Amino acid sequence: MPTTTPNTTDPLKRRRNPLLRPDFVRLWCGTTASGLATWAMPFILGLAVLHGSLSAVGLGLVLATRTAGFLVAVPLGGLLADRHSRRSVVLWSGLAAAAASPVLAAGLGTSTALMAVAAAVVGVGQGACRPAFQALTAEVVAPEDRQQANAALTFSVRGVTFLAPGLTALLATVTGPGALLLVTAALWLAAALLPRGGGAAPAERPARSPFHVEFAEGLTEARRHAWFLAGLGALTVVIALGYSATNVLLPLTSRDHYGTEAVLAGALTAYTGGALAGALLVARWKPRAQGWWALFGLGLYSLAPLSLVFPVGAVWVFAAYAVVGLGVELFNVPWFTAAQREVAPDKLARVSSLDFLFAYGFAPVGLALIAPAAQAFGAQNVLLACAALCVLAPALAALAPGARDFRTRRATPEHLRG
Hints:
This protein is mainly α. Helices cover 76% and strands 0% of the residues. It has 16 helices and no strands. Mean pLDDT is 84; it is low at 1-14, 199-203 and 412-418.
């Protein structure tokens, strides 16, 4: 009787862990490097203010021009990433940021204007690469593995924000801000050169349309997904109001209510720890009605402003921020994964650019308005209003078609209808 040997070539039995594939490892390292460089620049410039090589006014100007460059480049980067190779867009945007970073360092203590121009170029590189990285993830990772991959990517971002302050402060004891800015140039160079894949444009077209026409095509594609528009609206409200309110008023609450900056540091650390836990949870957890769960997680941000309203112990503030961090990742990972699944591949970068443009574009407006509003109406009233809107916006978004699972309803062909 012949013996049966096990089929060791069965792809389901021998399928490699997607997170260990070289192309994804390179992509993960590249996005981590860009995230570290992005985070480090404001921190390093803050150190420059302490060292006396940059004024507080200069710091504001440099960060403002970086934000302006980012907002201009995000939609342009989305257009280019859908027209050309996503890999090429990541390469050239990373190289631009890498080239501008030494110029930024050269301007320290000599020319704030030069620093502002260099910061704008860094912002352009940062903004252009974001939608390209999102689309490149969809090219490199199989659909069934994207949630796990997106969780790994967001875990690296949170890990950077958790570990980088201490590492940067440690490096600052042996070197100055100028040398640290050169380190960010090396990080941008790694972000540019490490990723692979996406060698060809996602869709070859017989003729390219003008930029404004292709941008309109991206808007049309976004409107096709009602859940995306509703979720983006909720995300914009939470970031522009909830995130801005807590960023402006948490330091004041830490000083005035608790008499120590330790509450500020502890809350931010708890938030990052919660986000790390959330990324680990959502890497494997795929519940039914995942879209509703994601919007529920987004609505948990209301706990952050609420924890600052009432005179509770500091431990409750830390707990609230930890839950908020977990909720943010409960939203982020399914949100990115759904966009990669539902949006037409040749329009994914443009739609992703709308995501970043709205989510980040209104944040400076909120940051500018929160402090005057707190002076006019009282900090407690502003925090309560922001908390209510952080709940209301995701709740309304949950009513949109397809929001239950973050899926777009397909039209039923006439011959299949009863």
